[in-house]
């Protein structure tokens, strides 16, 4: 009987030894160098407060700050680069099908915005842009952090024909735009001083450029006659500071029939105001 028990104990020891080789050991665990970051699950309130990002696999997004490559590629709200007060916010009408998929505003090959910004649209030293002429449209994500230039649209619905949308849709777009702009100001406020009593208006972009007359006129209850250039009359319910400079420029669409020089002179007026801000507010803005 004793012998049988000893044999059983010995067999149990061998079994335990066999199992031990499969047990977890910190010394034997595989260490992964630079593991990929784990995306934190965002709360509903955080998602509602975030800038607009089109659903994957589309890459269109509002650009109040520069999205990191990973977030841009995967159509994620980017928490890695915080929003600052912009020097220039460009407001378009709505994204083209190309921009909706590509993720870069004005990326349709026939659109001339990028050439306007780089100063390569029109010959002549008087038609300078505001960004490095060697930059390509794929460098657009750098503009918020490098130049303080952001992008958004009246509507966040893709389409190549702006006149196909109804008055009811445009009215809803206006409400949505105002809400998105106000939330942008709130996010900037949280970064700068997080004052619950702040009116948020002090965080407005210093200059707003409407890249087309239609999206500006659509903000008024009664559409006024609007001339190109600096705007002295703003909508009654304008959500940004009334002290900022607002300009309306010709659409950069390739469908616009205007001389290049005539188009560029309005943008140059904006760029002159932009460049003057750089010297006056460089230390405050801290854009390099």
From TrEMBL:
PANTHER family: G/T AND G/U MISMATCH-SPECIFIC DNA GLYCOSYLASE (PTHR12159), G_T MISMATCH-SPECIFIC THYMINE DNA GLYCOSYLASE (PTHR12159:SF9)
GO molecular function, one term: uracil DNA N-glycosylase activity
GO process terms (BP): base-excision repair, AP site formation
Organism: Blastocystis hominis
Keyword set includes DNA repair: yes
Keyword terms, alphabetized: DNA damage, DNA repair, Hydrolase
Record region (Disordered): 28-47
Positions of the Uracil-DNA glycosylase-like domain: 84-259
SUPFAM superfamilies hit by this protein: Uracil-DNA glycosylase-like
Protein known as: Uracil-DNA glycosylase-like domain-containing protein
Xref: InterPro entries: MUG/TDG, Uracil-DNA_glycosylase-like, Uracil-DNA_glycosylase-like_sf
CDD domains to which the protein is assigned, alphabetical: UDG-F2_TDG_MUG
